Amino acid sequence: MKDAGQPPPAAIVAAEPVKLDFSREMSYGDYLHLDDLLGAQHLRSGAHDEMLFIVQHQVTELWMKLLLHELQAAIGAVAGDQLQRAFKMLARVSKIMEQMVHAWDVLATMTPPEYSTIRPSLASSSGFQSWQYRQIEFMLGNKNAAMLKPHEHRPDLLAQVQAAHDAPSLYDEALRLLARRGLPVPASHVERDWSAPYVASEGVERAWLVVYRDPEAHWDLYQLGEELTDLEDMFRLWRFRHVTTVERVIGFKRGTGGTGGVSYLRKMLDVVLFPEIWKLRTDL
Q1: pLDDT digits (tens, 9 = 90+) for 124-142
Q2: 127 CB-contact burial (10 Å; exposed 0-12 / middle 13-18 / buried 19+)
């Protein structure tokens, strides 16, 4: 029953100084380029469920664009000894990853028969080829030069991915910061070929143990270690939900990009980005 004292919706709007004429002003849609954004879903199969597949992946790519924006700034902040700024950005990166984890919940509503109707339309395209995801992996330290190959047909994109591959990762900059603070980080992990895969070091763990055994004396470095832990924790959840969603939708079929699908994704679950941060928990 309507409250007798409540004005109708039209009266509420009329009472506000709301701008309604945008013939000469920038509107919400203009600012966000919604014509371009909402016009970028081109269904190839004609199947109802293809819209879900496209939108879910496009939304994830938008989140990854923001993630890269924040992650690049966080790496710069760590390199510049601006840890309070880095903590804000890294916390945001973890929250973005949380949104990416939940995106799999929506895609998981697609059943195997529904996916089968759109799969031929994907041809060889695959999330494996996402240049933004590859930059994220490289910036988090999972370097693999073979992953540059899928982008060679686009020199502009290859340059971006190559730059992330060749630059110090977030973890590299964290270790260099520890060294600048006088902690015993091995020289081999302070200056090296940044394009090479990271190799875990007992010396690096000993440096982190100094921090974790006396948090009060190294509080900002201790917080940095926990921000890195939060980030990898959420990244692992994203990978796990990816695996389970793929298995739920296609079982153990090969991926459209040529990987083994679930078998490949399960192997990636074992990749540890910040190994000493995790190992020290056993050794404390």
Answers
A1: 898 889 999 999 999 999 9
A2: middle
Torsion of CA 246, 254, 270, 187, to 10 degrees: -120
**Residues 249 and 112: beta-carbon distance below 8 Å:** yes
- 189-194: long-range contacts, CB 8 A cutoff, minimum separation 24: 194/143, 194/166, 194/167, 194/168, 194/169
Share of the chain above pLDDT 90, in %: 81
**pLDDT digits over 154-210, tens only?**
999 999 999 999 999 999 999 999 999 999 999 999 999 999 999 999 999 999 999
Chain segment 64-115, per-residue pLDDT in tens:
999 999 999 999 999 999 999 999 999 999 999 999 999 999 999 999 999 9
